[in-house]
Protein 1
Amino acid sequence: MPILRKSGGFMGILSGLFRSRDKPKNSTSGSSYRFFYGQSSAGKCVTERSAMQMTAVYACVRILSEAVAGLPLHLYRYNSDGSKEKALEHPLYFLLHNELYQKRIPVIIGYEGWDAAGKGGNIKRIAEALDARGYVVNPIASPEPHEKARHFLWRFWTRLPKSGHVAIFDRTWYGRVMVERLEGFCSENDWQRAYNEINEFEKELHDWGAIVIKFWVQIDKDTQLERFTLRQNTPEKRWKITDEDWRNRDKWDDYETAVDEMLEKTNTSFAPWHILESNDKKYARIKALKIVIKAIEDKLEQVEKN
């Protein structure tokens, strides 16, 4: 039978409402007070009244959960004339993420893209549509000395989500075949071998039961220059631009070649790439949300069939 424990918030209020003089003698007061439907923590049966109270609480919680799950998530896209139109409606907050948790399905979402393409804003919108208790965002920078002493995938293995949770990677293991390749941080043999290593890594994640979603956030060279200039000339945004960003821009053609090769060699059926056309950031955000929702729905449907 279900066990209900006081954990603060809404559940704490409900459990407080149903406290009575019939509580088990061995229970304590305050935040550690527990209700058990069927047996106490000492294994003794609680009174009939307590059992009835907890049955009522459990029924209330279930009804409220089902009601909240039906609330739609409305996303709007603003047109050039200032009007807005509904672009997406889906009960993502409490329905899909809760089902992932219940069925213990992990989700890995990886973001790569040009500098100033809008990865951060896109990740923010994905995260807003998730239960804060069930996801983590991993910002990936250059490896630490203890990470350099290991295989390049090691630091990503240690950041994988628990079953039923979501891990979002702001930059990923694909740095091996882009920045590390072009900046000479690894040998040619290392980055050439990495394509096969990455495909095997993602296949293992897929076989584990994880949903693997990879985004490449695309902008053109003129849009990047416009955004770089805006950041440079706006004091509150200046922290976003560095000399390294300008140096990387000078290597645009080299990076473009590396990106094309990466997309060609690592686009697989179990971990396909999704291109987010981000000259229009709002369009890219809505597209990303739709892709995530569809991937989750497809996986849930597959699990149901099996």
Protein 2
Amino acid sequence: MPQVSRRNFLAGASVAAAAVALVPGRTASAAPSAQAADGVDLHWLDGKPTATTGATWGVPWPKGQLPKDSTFALQTDDGSAVAVQSWPLASWPDGTLKWTGHAIGSSALAAGFRLAPGTPAAPPTPVTATRSGSEVRLANGVVDVRIATSGYIVIRSISRGARTTAQNGRLVLLLQNRPDDDSTATQTSWAGVIDGVDIEQSGPVRAVVKVTGRYRVNGGSSGRAILPWTLRVYLGAGDESIRLAHSFIWDADAEHDFVRGLGLELAVPMTDEAHNRHVRFGTASGGIWGEPVRVLTGLRRDPGAAVRAAQVAISRCGTTSRSSRSPRTTSRCGSARRPRAAGSSTPVTAVAPPASATSVA
């Protein structure tokens, strides 16, 4: 069998190589094409997904066929245009494209696609990433995310329309000086302090902001700094959720530093009555466990079938009328103690590396 060099192999196999779309739990591949101008066919390796948070993938191209400034268009199997964002990943020695990266939004759920050189379709509501003063803003007409460029508050706010759904987001670290089984262990609280912020992609289909920093005691500006971290914030055109990917490098003292907790803490403004505030947890199987903060069922006075059904369904069960002279609140949902004052905030901490989609509802 004749010897084949690595360069010749890559040159001959580029057209036939598979392109992979990297999304949570889903992959896609590209069918081979004889010429770059013909494009490549794309399909989901595991079948058409029911939902995604968007998709990204890479495509190899043969040498000498696509100029470095080429643009790409994406269509579904039936010829419908799909908004796609593209960028170069590698070039051949002659300057032509060797690999390109591509991204689509969460609404693109066709069984198959075809990618070819051309003018890309624009999304109905493009996403943007802009820097202004001391913050970077991600916005897509539905969700608005404001990211700080310094300090220990990483995510200043997340809004949906005129309503702020979360604010004062910070990376938190709980460290102790001895193992868990040592009763003399003491714990200290740390917070991630920002070193730098970069806009990696600014739309129109996907925007990505990269935030880097280190953890310091109580988020201070001096003293020991450990565990250099990277947080990427993703937002797609028209999406109703954001995606966070967090990573860090261990550079602490393995003999004296023991991680007890690591996560993202957000303050959630509360405006509704306690019985109309709900805690929800999504599951890997697609189900949702939920419960109101204040349960009105099982009280001495039955609130009625409509209220019981609303609380089981995790939905709003009515409005309240307050009396400034009475410590109690009368509601169509029944009687209960006075709720927390409107406009208050409750911190919510996810004690785990934040690498999942976050709903903004």
Protein 3
Amino acid sequence: MTRRQRQIVNAVSAATGVPVSDILGRHRYHAVIPARQAAQYLMALDGGPFNSHTAIGKAFGREHTTVWWGIVQSKRDIAVGGPRSAIIRRVQEILASKERPAPAQPEQQPPAPHHGAMPRIVKRVTSAGWMEPDGSLVVAP
């Protein structure tokens, strides 16, 4: 995933409240799909050699036809003023203002008390890399 693609995914996460791990993950939850498809649409709009449907698909761990369908759905939604149009507008504002939005954090349970032992730090592995405990995405080499 390129730096610009990461910025777009982080901005979509900040605009929608959907964690980066869910946007890049395999879930097809109702709240995740518009965010993921908006990110794919914005990456395709961004242009450049790394934003073909195939390259975007690799960033999301999906086929290029899935990316194509997400872009088609986003275009249809924008035409009728649906939820993706609001997401895309907000993300474009975030990217234009050059904010460095922090990705939305999934709800975390309070840490369990430990008795003298060091707490275990867990990394969540995604198809694009892994999530650090602070929620930042580390891209696999």
Protein 4
Amino acid sequence: MGIDSELIHAKLKEFFGFSSFKGEQEQIISNLLQGNDSFVIMPTGGGKSLCYQLPALLMEGTAIVISPLIALMKNQVDAIRGFVAGNEGIAHFLNSSLTKAQIAEVTEDLTSGVTKLLYVAPESLTKEENIAILRQIRISFFAVDEAHCISDWGHDFRPEYRKIRPIVDEIGRAPIIALTATATPKVQNDILKNLGIMDAHVFKSSFNRPNLYYEVRDKIDQDKDIIKYIKQHPGKSGIIYCLSRKKVEELAQMLVINGIRAVPYHAGLDAKVRAENQDKFLMEEVDVIVATIAFGMGIDKPDVRFVIHYDVPRSLEGYYQETGRAGRDGREGVCIAYYSYKDIRKLDKRIEQAEFIFKNHIEDRGQLAAIRQKAEDEIAVLIKQRQKLYRYEPGSPQIGVLTERLKKLRHTAKLCRNIEIHSIEMEKRLQAAQMEEQRRREQREKEEQQKEARNQEKQRR
């Protein structure tokens, strides 16, 4: 592209105010500027976003940034607009929250060449109308943020991410940069293979964060222990992760009662409430946010001083990603995890359910119900057989064999029933979320129509 190191450093200072790059940032940016595919594995706080933001501002055309969380896109767009004063169209996001008028504004800025960065959710990228828009413009490159979401071996698997490569081919091939803060070798290979960038230059930074202090504590009076710790560090920002939404609500309320400025955050809350609570935490109106793993991806808050795991984390990758949100400014961050054997048993049950589904190639509840029914029918037959043996052959070794078989069948039936119940609950939540989204979309369209009608009325007058 003819952009040398001196110009890259000058633009780094002009746009972002930095005098030097961190780690391999410059090499990653240079590789992208040369039109090559890149795969970046960099710890949380390592400066991944700069690796696509700066080249997007330097290259001709628009960079398409595929990001998993709609709620964070506005923050990212606002940040870019802050770097480039006087040009609101320099960055946009395209998702289901926009009205028709806003989409028209984004389209105009894209087609006129004003926009350098466009943030889209993978779901938005697959829509025909958006594909049609993107085919009209010159694309500098595609950036796939939180790329571990591509892999079903990852801790944040998102099926929509696996459709990215076919859509890229449909829109028009351009260099691809995939970025993640955590990926096992299996996940890394899955990402490269699924995106079709097996020849990409891989940049892997050290995951050692010497400013983070890790500690594991027994779950003994942990509520009292957490309150004591927070009060010993007044005014410090922190995140507390819980496995269940119920515990998030209870713990946030308990902290507030004890004089600690705290708010809850989980996927069951209304989208507006989630956004408000997130903003309160980012703007330091509260000190602590109590959350499920629904919170944190892409959050750019450098001064989080502690991350507490109320329960044992679900995976090592997830734990690293979540604790990595502490100390992003390079100063000390404390990571405390509470441990109990009971938590391990809960996770074992979830793993067992997942393995059962995988081994039996279960795709829907109908298959689960059939397996459960078969087990229950066999249980009824075996109980009768065992009763006859107890009556006529009380010392028969076959009684022990039947008892073991009954134990396994009852376990299978119970497992199926639990998975079915969980599946129904998840389906209800999904339907409720879809209905709420439809209601909001209709409300936005109605408001837009009313606005247009008012404008027309003014023009007639």
